[in-house]
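2024-03-11 09:14:02 DEBUG pipeline.ingest accepted 1 chain
2024-03-11 09:14:02 DEBUG pipeline.ingest length=358
2024-03-11 09:14:03 DEBUG pipeline.predict start
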Amino acid sequence: MQCKFAGCDSDPYEDQEYCILHLDLPGKGSELELIKDLKEKEVERKIESGDLNFKGAKFFDANFSGMHIPGDLILTQSTVLNDFHCLDSEIDGGIWFDQGTVAGHAIFESSLIRGSISFFKGKVGGNISFDHAQVDKYVWFEGVTVEGEASFNQCHLGGSISFNNATIDENISFYGSIIEGNAWFERAYLGGNTWFDLAEIKGALCFKDCKFKYIKSQEKACRSAKILWERLGDRGKADYHFYREMEAKRKQKSFLHRHLELIVQYPFGYGVRPLRLILTFLGIIMFFALVFWKIEDNYSPDTLMDKLRFSFLTMLIPAYGVINAKTGIYGWLTIFEAFIGAFTWPTFMVIFARKYMR
């Protein structure tokens, strides 16, 4: 008879259906201490025998600190009811914790990992820390949930790191770290502050569709990403992060200023979204044309076309509308449209030149 966990060929524990590693932990008491002790001894036995497959294992505490592990440490779908420790360890392969759960903290500080680390769709109930660690290949945290902080201070990552679709409930920090590849945070949620001070990212930094709980964090993170994309020569992605940086700055201003600046953000797109300005330009032309058509009180198609032409020329050549305007409310509306056109058209030319001619 074998353990009922798929792929496990170990013998079941006593009269249970699962082996000691896949056996659920009892609630409390002497039986809990016995099962904990047996699980720890089984982990030591497997490591000594070179068997590093702990897929689906259930731990109270998982402690791999101070060890030399000669291959990949496989912890896929594993559950740790307390903390996971892997401090000052040397791992010749990678660590695979996909879809695993750590109820407490996950600590990898000062460890050397010559392969990759993957926490794909995993969950950590506390903090996760790689301070002073070295990972020679990529770090994969896509879809992960970290209910505490994520700390990568003064660590060295030999490849890229991905937090796409991840949720970090508290702070995330890369102070003084070196990342040889890219750092991705697309569609992630960052619930605390972000620090990239003194970090050296040799690839790209991306926060596309990332949600920030704190506006100041959005400003700092997107400014760092903008600088890196400009260095790489990708103006489109640099403009995206510049827009989000300016949006965050606006939201930190006083009530009056942040609402007045909406005109600069949405119709003008902070100078990096010419299509938005074109649509604004055409919308204003159509609006005034319809108003003039209503005032004229002649609803024929020819009259509408004439008002569209007049509105377009007023926006394009403000003096044309002022000179040809009628008196009364019609004339004042024409002056108002000419005033808008005096700012809108030159702004579009500047934005277009900046976007496509640099």
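2024-03-11 09:14:41 DEBUG pipeline.report The chain is about 40% helix and 15% strand.
2024-03-11 09:14:41 DEBUG pipeline.predict end
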